[in-house]
Write a structure and sequence with these properties.
single chain, 55 residues, alpha+beta, 2 helices, 47% helix, 25% strand
Length: 55
């Protein structure tokens, strides 16, 4: 359980760092950002879009 919580915390930290980048901010104004994180043996695929845009 503790390992899963550490992995989840790492995921949140990495996503926060990613969202601070200027190039990512520009992409969020367009089609959004797709990607994959590998943390502590987990592969996490994600899609981040701003709500209400590109619908």
């Amino acid at each position: 359980m503790l390992g899963s919580l550490k992995a989840l915390n790492s995921i949140v930290d990495q996503l926060n760092k990613l969202l601070e980048r200027e190039d990512i901010q520009r992409k969020l104004k367009g089609e959004g950002v797709k990607g994959k994180l590998e943390i502590e043996g987990y592969q996490i695929y994600f899609l981040i879009k701003r709500e209400g845009e590109n619908e």
